[in-house]
Write a structure and sequence with these properties.
Layout (H helix, E strand, L loop, with lengths): L2 H7 L19 H4 L29 E3 L12 E9 L5 H9 L12 E8 L2 E8 L9 H10 L2 E7 L3 H17 L7 E6 L11 H10 L3 E4 L8 H32 L2 H16 L1 H11 L7
Parallel strand pairs: 1-3, 2-4, 2-5, 5-6, 6-7
Antiparallel strand pairs: 3-4
The protein binds guanosine-5'-triphosphate.
Length: about 300
């Protein structure tokens, strides 16, 4: 699937590329149920329900990876995705492609867009936020960005090594801010079209992703290369964690009821073996860090 094809197929839905006024998505009924509606958002894996007749949802757009999906249920999940990265690495350009806006349509000052994607036959709505301020003086805004995301896209430019270094620092900052959470994080090397001025090799990006335990992809916003893959990958990473944590909880509750002494001993031995296999795990991760469809 290419993004361009989809836009041609669904002309009416392009109005959803309209940016969301900052207050808009806080007014959604599901958010109002939260204790602090102005700043709350659905937790990872939770769904903000979609009411077809609700006029407040007219900013939604649709981006489908499947050809015929009208049979889909209207209920979908809503997740916030925050883009982080230095000035000029291409955050706004990537967000613009996600939102389906062209320079002609662009409305200055808007930086948050909501769009519904159908990925692997399931609808998911992403609220993509290009609100990161690099200025270290704006602590409160940075803190907010680090708090609200259900997933993060850390962007650097392959033509500027200093932005790559900043990306690694941002990964550390994010880890500190959201320690206990297994967040989907995707490291993005943008401007891959600028071959002659490349300063960061693909292998370096991949190695960094392995060290920092995140996913990796190179994109070109200018050529719209891998941008669809990036946002669909975000959706898949969110789902893998959502489904994984549900399965783990189910398994834990069954275990608690049924676990015998033999099973406990086996689990202990498994953990020992797993520790020995840590090196192997790093190798496996380095093979899979560019595959956004697996954990
Ligand atoms: N060649 C090339 N240029 C790009 C690409 N992505 C963005 N640019 C250009 O890089 C410049 C900066 O892009 P932005 O999208 O504004 O970058 P940003 O990260 O949002 O920058 P700030 O808003 O300052 O934080 C613009 O001139 C873009 O046209 C790309 O993939 N390839």
């Amino acid at each position: 699937m290419t993004l361009n094809t989809q836009r041609e197929k669904e002309p009416l839905r392009r109005r959803g590329s309209t940016p969301i006024p900052p207050t808009h998505f806080y007014q959604h009924s599901s958010y109002l149920e939260q204790p602090r509606p102005q700043r709350s958002h659905p937790a990872l894996g939770q769904s903000a329900s979609y009411h077809p007749g609700d006029k407040s949802l007219h900013y939604r757009a649709h981006w489908s990876s499947d050809s015929d999906d009208d049979s889909q249920s209207d209920s979908d999940c809503v997740y916030r995705v925050v883009l982080l990265g230095d000035h000029g690495v291409g955050k706004t350009s990537l967000t613009g492609i996600f939102a389906g806006i062209t320079e002609k349509d662009e409305q200055p000052g808007e930086d948050t867009y909501e769009r519904t994607l159908t990925v692997d036959g399931e609808k998911t709505t992403l609220i993509v936020m290009d609100t990161w301020e690099n200025d270290k003086l704006v602590h409160s805004s940075q803190d907010e960005c680090l708090k609200v995301g259900s997933a993060y896209v850390i962007v650097y430019s392959v033509t500027d090594r200093s932005t790559f270094d900043s990306a690694a620092e941002l990964r550390i900052t994010l880890r500190r801010a959201r320690q206990a959470e297994n967040l989907p994080i995707i490291l993005v090397g943008n401007k891959s079209d600028l071959v002659r001025s490349r300063e960061v090799a693909v292998e370096e990006g991949r190695a960094c992703a392995v060290v920092f335990d995140c996913k990796f992809i190179e994109t070109s916003a200018s050529l719209q290369h891998n941008v669809t893959e990036l946002f669909e990958g975000v959706v898949r990473q969110i789902r893998l964690r959502r489904d994984g944590s549900e399965a783990i909880q189910r398994r834990r509750s069954i275990y608690k009821r049924k676990e015998s002494l033999t099973q406990k001993a086996r689990r202990f031995l498994d953990r020992l073996v797993a520790r020995k296999n840590q090196r192997m795990a790093v190798k496996v991760r380095s093979k899979s860090c560019h595959d956004l469809a697996v954990l």
